[in-house]
Amino acid sequence: MNEYKDESREIEKYFSVYHIEEKDLISTSLVSLVEKGISEMERHVKDNVIQNGESEGIEQTEMEKFFGRDRLKMATKMLHQDSLIKFVTKIERLIEFPLTYFSDINEENDIQFSLNNSMNIINQEGVFIWNSHPFKPIEQVGNEQFGNKEDVIYRFSKCYNINKKLTDYVKDKIRQEGINSEFIYPDPNLIAKKSFEETKASC
């Protein structure tokens, strides 16, 4: 009993930071699901265009020349990308995935989930992680989904235990990086007011 109390007191001396590598989530990215859906629909789009072209008197061979790989993919995205995103992000669909995530951090990818309408997510460079299990923590679900049973040292997430005596030091380092409550939870009204005052002063 005394040993248990000692362990409890020791734990209370630390705070924990959990870290998940994107590489450990990439296979569950909703972007990959949307891309797969687009790829599967390309044939359907091409067949429809060829059929419509033939009804207008255009030979199939001519239509084949028109549809290069990039052009077909672009046309399919224009027609179906938004509906695919809406389809896979519905709650009744997400509930089928044990663990998944989506993000708009990669601006070069034109598959976007409109997360960037939140200033909090923009500043925090955040991702939306979905754990559909009603009570298992994300690290347990991740271990079960990705871990190889033969690999006993696999860990889905890393945990850093930091002694609370270092709290002031950690806070200072974070502030030096320009990360504070105003950055994490930006107030649009204050930003607009500051921009107005700066513009007014420069006029």
Poorly predicted spans: none
Radius of gyration: 25 Å
Gap from first CA to last CA: 72 Å
The number of distinct structural domains comes to 2
Per DSSP E runs of 2 or more residues, the count of β-strands stands at: 4
Largest sheet: 2 strands, antiparallel
Summarize the helix and strand pattern as letters. HEHHHHEHEHEHHH
Q: What structural class do helix, strand and pairing data support? A: mainly alpha
Strand order of the largest sheet: 1-4
Global shape? flat
Helix content: 40-55%
Question: What is the mean pLDDT?
Answer: 76
Number of DSSP helical runs: 10
Percentage of residues in strands: 5-15%
Concise structural overview:
By secondary structure, the chain is mainly α. The protein is 55% helix and 10% strand.
Offer a few descriptive terms.
203 residues, single chain, 4 strands, two-stranded antiparallel ribbon, mainly alpha, 10 helices
Describe this structure in words.
- By secondary structure, this protein is mainly alpha-helical.
- It has two domains: 14-162, no CATH class; 164-203, no CATH class.
- 55% of the residues lie in helices and 10% in strands.
- The protein contains ten helices and four strands, in the order H-E-H-H-H-H-E-H-E-H-E-H-H-H.
- A two-stranded antiparallel sheet has the order 1-4. Strands 2-3 form a two-stranded antiparallel ribbon.
- Helix 2 (30-55) crosses helix 4 (69-88).
- The longest helix is centred in the N-terminal third of the chain and has 26 residues, at 30-55.
- The radius of gyration is 25 Å and the shape is flat.
- The chain starts with a helix and ends with a helix.
